[in-house]
């Protein structure tokens, strides 16, 4: 009986992840390309390896989805972008917050912060460092603070309709 329960749970998780990935792809392709920044996709390494993306939704806010692989999970953070008034042109800081769903071994639901710094080069590459502390609400209430990562993302539509966020 336990085998069938695990099989059903795994099937539901795979379908949920597939729906989330399809929704993210749809947002990317339907999104208006006249936004103040362009969308990016890349890799994040550190405490957990992931595919990391950014999808602009206005002049400075953006969605920041991630698909984690070391312990399988999906997350989407809502980031607010800031730049130093007299700092380097491509340097940005962002605080953010969003839900995380973790599946590997057991299901966990977290609400996490996303605090980072990134630099957009003149060519279509953005690099950065972030920290994602969070509160776990399933399997007991817990605070997780050891989640950090280095990011490298490719900027799409560079040179066509790209404008850096200031």
Question: What is the total tally of β strands?
Answer: 12
Beta-strand share of residues: 35-45%
| Cα shape | globular
Walk across the major sheet and give the strand order. 5-8-9-12-1-2-3-4-6-7-10-11
Highest CATH level, the class: Mainly Beta
N-to-C SSE string, H for helix and E for strand: HEEEEEEEEEEEE
State the CATH architecture.
Beta Barrel
Radius of gyration, CA atoms, in whole angstroms: 17 Å
Largest sheet: 12 strands, antiparallel
Task: Please indicate the count of domains.
Answer: 1
Tell me the helix content: 10-25%
Q: Give the CA-CA distance, first to last residue.
A: 57 Å
Return the CATH topology.
Porin
Low-pLDDT residue spans: 28-36
Overall pLDDT metric: 80
Determine the number of helices (DSSP H or I, runs of at least 4 residues).
1
Task: Label the structural class.
Answer: alpha+beta
Oligomerization status of the protein chains:
single chain
Give your account of this protein's structure:
The relative contact order is 0.18. 17% of the residues lie in helices and 43% in strands. It is globular and about 45 Å long. It is built from one helix and twelve strands, in the order αββββββββββββ. A twelve-stranded antiparallel beta sheet has the order 5-8-9-12-1-2-3-4-6-7-10-11, with helices on one face. With 166 residues, it is an alpha+beta fold. The chain has one domain: Porin (Beta Barrel), CATH 2.40.160. Mean pLDDT is 80; it is low at 28-36.
């Amino acid at each position: 009986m336990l085998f069938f329960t695990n099989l059903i749970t795994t099937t539901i998780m795979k379908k949920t992840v597939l729906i989330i990935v399809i929704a993210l792809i749809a947002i990317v392709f339907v999104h208006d390309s006249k936004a103040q920044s362009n969308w990016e996709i890349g890799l994040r390494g550190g405490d957990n390896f992931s595919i990391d993306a950014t999808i602009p939704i206005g002049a400075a806010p953006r969605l920041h989805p991630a698909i984690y692989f070391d312990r399988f999970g999906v997350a989407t953070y809502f980031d607010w972008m800031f730049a130093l008034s007299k700092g380097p042109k491509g340097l940005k800081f962002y605080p953010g917050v969003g839900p995380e769903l973790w599946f590997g071994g057991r299901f966990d639901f977290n609400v996490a912060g996303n605090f980072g710094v990134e630099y957009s080069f003149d060519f279509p590459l953005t690099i950065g460092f972030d920290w994602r502390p969070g509160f776990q609400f399933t399997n007991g209430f817990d605070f997780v603070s050891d989640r950090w990562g280095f990011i490298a993302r490719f900027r799409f539509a560079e040179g066509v309709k790209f404008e850096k966020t200031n």
